[in-house]
Amino acid sequence: MRDSTLDAGLIGTLYRAACLAELDALKPGNVHAFAAGHRMVVADFITSADVSAPALAQAGTGIGARVRDGVAATMAAVGQNTNLGILLLCAPLAVAAERGQSVSASLGSLQSPDSEAVFAAIRLANPGGLGRAGNHDVAAPAPKSLLEAMAEAAGRDRIARAYVDNFADVAAIGLPALSAARETGLDPSWCTSAVHLAYLRSVPDSHIARKAGSATAEAVRREAEAALTGLDLACKPVTPLLALDASLKARGLNPGTSADFTVATLFWDALAAAGAVLA
């Protein structure tokens, strides 16, 4: 146990702030303050952050319970899945910060009740494009090991992969992008855009892959990389980014996993700044 434990109230405040900061940034293809989309509006996500924060930060509870209760509160408030991915990524960070553990230790503490709670959360949220799986199907009883189920899905879902590689994408993509953006003097919302764009251009988005196929997800990644090459965020390039945003939304392509990882990156950074030692 490390002497880097954080108060549950602070964890909840930092989680909500990360959710709201992500909404303020221009994130092509996703819902944000510059443009709604996918039959959702920013207000839905603000409400979702408000109502899920107490569950996400509930002292003494495990990862699974935080995810399940956060999803339940969200569905009761807005009637749709706005934050399952966010909660799946942020719950291990919250538990680690409260206990003074690394993320690896937090994930290593997962037990059977966590698996049951996470599977219940997924069934409740009913995320688009989930489909059926040969092993560990969410329609079936939850397996005893959540990590085993996540390992099974890791090849097709970046959030599941985070559970088995100790959030390697946050360390390799998100946090470096955030640091680089700050070093260039970007304001906070454009730093957040930089994080989202780093995910969008670096790895195929799992949400797009689930709904439209892996080939489409890779095509969007290449499209984003081409569109962003030479783009200077210091110039606040709203017009070209909104053009990409409109194009993706017109095709029904929502890089939701990139947005979820953006929240997780901001949350990790804020927890670390408050004293948590997550790595």
TrEMBL record:
<protein>
    <submittedName>
        <fullName>Triphosphoribosyl-dephospho-CoA synthase</fullName>
    </submittedName>
</protein>
<dbReference type="GO" id="GO:0005524">
    <property type="term" value="F:ATP binding"/>
</dbReference>
<dbReference type="InterPro" id="IPR002736">
    <property type="entry name" value="CitG"/>
</dbReference>
<dbReference type="Pfam" id="PF01874">
    <property type="entry name" value="CitG"/>
</dbReference>
<dbReference type="GO" id="GO:0046917">
    <property type="term" value="F:triphosphoribosyl-dephospho-CoA synthase activity"/>
</dbReference>
